[in-house]
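Encode chain A's predicted structure.
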Amino acid sequence: MIVAIHALTGAALARLSSSRTQALLLGGLSHLATDLLPHRDLEIPEEALLLAAALGVVAFSRGPGSREFAGAIGAALPDLENLVGRCLGIPDQQLLLPTHSRYHGRKARGFHGQLTLALLCLASLALPAASCADKRRRGNSSR
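Encoded structure for chain A:
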């Protein structure tokens, strides 16, 4: 899964938590759940750029000390295993997380793969959209 989608999904789910610690854990669980979907990974430079953009959006819209940012970090952290594995040449089958070692090989291909990726991208835009709506609502109610 594209790590930026993990981060934005974790951020969106963190809104259900009551603390940053819960948000971090919920983000990690969301990573495992979204890795079960058929998908493909990008190359490391693209992943890093998209992750930086996603974390920037969350930090700007919700704040770096927010539950949403903690959820984004929690959701992105498991992919450090992929990064280290790729850099060291470790095969997917030898990675520790079950969604990386057993299920990660199911790659999204063809129309269904593209549809899954498109739906996940749209779903991950929910946090910035909700954040903008919150700011507008707060701005209008204070007048």
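Residues 3-141 form one domain.
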